[in-house]
Specification:
By secondary structure, this protein is an alpha+beta fold. 37% of the residues lie in helices and 25% in strands. The protein has helices at 21-26, 45-64, 70-77, 85-100, 167-185, and strands spanning 2-4, 7-11, 15-19, 104-108, 117-125, 136-144, 150-159.
Length: 186
């Protein structure tokens, strides 16, 4: 077992396990003073910097071992240009959720390498980001062995590069991103 850039990596009888629980323990909530924002929902520079720091820490978790928070981090990151008080509350809530749920990634024995395959899942939604017109898409790619075991290789939730006019268009662009990544991994 060893630690590498915030990842706890260990080999068990089931396979190799990646975990970031010790890193997650070091991440702290944004302190929010009661009554500080009575007149305005816009936050000051210090609170904006604290929000940016927390979102960066959450993004590190989401990109390494916690695909379950990828969309939450995406949604928070879209608000960093003009952060509001509610964004600080949402960031703290996301952090609390992550701390309450243990999560790790297992890379099990997948059997014969010649019989492995990539399985791709993608999804998107039309105009579902806080600005009211941007769409988000995401994917997850698994490596599946002939013994029916699998492990995640790549995942991402991101803002779709252009404004689309339908859910079908958003889902098509998300699928293109997923297939591109699968082709790269393959």
């Amino acid at each position: 077992a060893f630690k590498y850039v915030g990842l706890d990596i260990k080999q068990t009888t089931n396979g190799i396990v990646l975990d970031q629980s010790s890193y997650l323990e070091t991440v702290e909530n944004i302190p929010i003073e009661r009554g500080k924002y009575e007149d305005s929902d816009t936050v000051n520079k210090n609170d904006s910097d604290n929000l940016r720091t927390l979102v960066g820490q959450l993004n590190w978790l989401g990109s390494q071992t916690r695909p379950d928070c990828s969309f939450d981090v995406l949604e928070l990151s879209t608000s960093l240009k003009h952060p509001l008080r509610e964004d600080m509350f949402r960031a703290n809530k996301t952090l609390k959720k992550l701390k309450l749920e243990d999560s790790s990634i297992l890379f099990p024995d997948l059997g014969d390498p010649k019989l492995m395959k990539l399985v791709v899942f993608s999804d998107a939604s039309h105009a579902n980001l806080p600005d009211g017109y941007s769409s988000a898409g995401g994917y997850i790619i698994f490596l599946v062995g002939n013994n029916k075991r699998s492990c995640p290789l790549a995942w991402e939730a991101k803002k779709i590069r252009r404004v689309v006019k339908s859910t079908l268009a958003a889902e098509t662009l998300a699928l293109v991103e997923a297939v591109d990544m699968a082709y790269y991994l393959g």
